[in-house]
Specification:
The protein has 122 residues and is mostly beta strands. It has no helices and eleven strands. The chain starts with a strand and ends with a strand.
Length: 122
């Protein structure tokens, strides 16, 4: 599986963006799909994750209630809907795939997209 993230850009505080992560290959539905982000000068951090079936999601405290992860296994795509964006959400956002473990830790994710930049600024 290869991952390609898209949808980043410049948005004003309070605005919305939807990121997409398209996967190649036939095994997309076998992976839990996560989103991470990395702000300048900071470590990569967990944003959220969705199970293989899409039934369960977990989110970082900083985005819960504002961000929503969904997936369409027929389209091999996972989405990150971001609402009520804040300047502190500015970062490069990465999608990642974990074959077995469903969780917040970065270690189980062995496939990564290239990242898409989100800038929240007025």
């Amino acid at each position: 599986v290869q991952l390609q993230a898209s949808g980043g850009g410049l948005v004003q505080p309070g605005g919305s963006l939807r990121l997409s992560c398209a996967a190649s290959g036939r095994t997309f539905s076998r992976y839990h799909m996560g989103w991470f982000r990395q702000a300048p000068g900071k470590e990569r951090e967990f944003v959220g994750v969705i199970t293989r079936s899409g039934e369960t999601t977990i989110y970082a405290d900083s985005v819960r209630g504002r961000f929503t992860i969904s997936r369409d296994n027929a389209k091999n795509t996972v989405y990150l809907q971001m609402n009520s964006l804040k300047p502190e959400d500015t970062a490069v956002y990465y999608c990642a795939a974990a074959p077995t473990v469903f969780g917040r830790s970065i270690d189980p994710y062995d496939l990564w997209g290239q990242g898409t930049l989100v800038t929240v600024s007025s």
